[in-house]
Amino acid sequence: MFFSIIIPLYNRPDEVDELLESLCKQTDKQFEVVVVEDGSTRKSDTVVKKYRDKLDIIYFEKPNSGPGLTRNAGAAGAKYDYLIFFDSDCIIPPNYIETVSHFLEDHWVDAYGGPDAALPSFTITQKAINYSMTSFFTTGGIRGGKKSMEKFNPRSFNLGVSQKAFEAIGGYGAMRFGEDIDLSLRLLKNGFQTALIPGAFVYHKRRSTFRQFFKQVYNSGIARINLHLIHPGSLKAVHLLPSLFVVGITFSLLLSLLYTPFLLIPLVYSLLVFIDSFIKNSSFEVALYSVIAAWVQITGYGTGFLSAVWRRLILKKGEFKAFEKKFYD
Question: What stretch or stretches form a coiled coil here (predicted)?
Answer without folding.
Answer: none
